Amino acid sequence: MKKFLIALVAMFGITAGVSAQKTEVYASYGGYTQMDATDCHDGGPSVNTAWGALTAGVNFKITPKIWIGPSYTFSSTSRKKYDDNNFYYHAIMFNGRYGYYQNNIVSMYAKLGIGAVITHETWPDDSKNYGHFAYQISPLCAQVAINKTFSMFGELGFGAQGLLQVGFKMNL
């Protein structure tokens, strides 16, 4: 059974590598994240709303309509009463994207991401880490090509990367 699973994983890896026709890297900003809406600071009182989230990631095209890849998201905030108590949010996720419309300039897609949010809380002489489930569900996303290398995009959904996310992609 173990050999069968290893062979299956190897076949999937080879198939994905052969069919990966394109790679893209992206950077974006998203406002009102999962960290603001849910308790990613373990019940601490008087926490400010975070300034948003910066995300960077890589996507690999595995079929004409499906892209997959990892992403990293950073956000932070503080407590209202204490200037020296800060929260730093690090979200590491695996994302999948399904394209449902495309022409030469515009493509529309839906995106789903899952992973973990690591909250690092600091005080002047102490720090703590918390782990939480991270997700991103974005059913309405659009990408507009600027040229063959660069495009800009907007994604509407909810999760660790933000309620509304905007950014740029570069095809490699």
Please describe what this structure looks like.
This protein has helices at residues 2-19, 34-37, and strands at 23-31, 53-61, 66-78, 86-102, 106-123, 126-145, 150-159, 164-171. The relative contact order is 0.21. The mean pLDDT is 88. 13% of the residues lie in helices and 60% in strands. The radius of gyration is 18 Å and the shape is globular. It has a single domain (22-171), classed as Porin, CATH 2.40.160. The chain has 172 residues and is mostly beta strands. Strand 7 (150-159) and strand 8 (164-171) form a beta hairpin. It contains 2 helices and 8 strands, in the order αβαβββββββ.
Features:
Porin; 60% strand; 13% helix; globular; mainly beta; 8 strands; 172 residues
Quickly give the CATH architecture: Beta Barrel
Structural class label = mainly beta
State the shape: globular
Strand content: over 45%
Protein name: Porin family protein
Brief characterization of the structure:
This is Porin family protein. By secondary structure, the protein is mainly beta.
Explain the layout of strands and helices:
Elements (H helix, E strand, L loop, with lengths): L1 H18 L3 E9 L2 H4 L15 E9 L4 E13 L7 E17 L3 E18 L2 E20 L4 E10 L4 E8 L1
Antiparallel strand pairs: 1-2, 1-8, 2-3, 3-4, 4-5, 5-6, 6-7, 7-8
Organism: Muribaculum caecicola
Protein name: Porin family protein
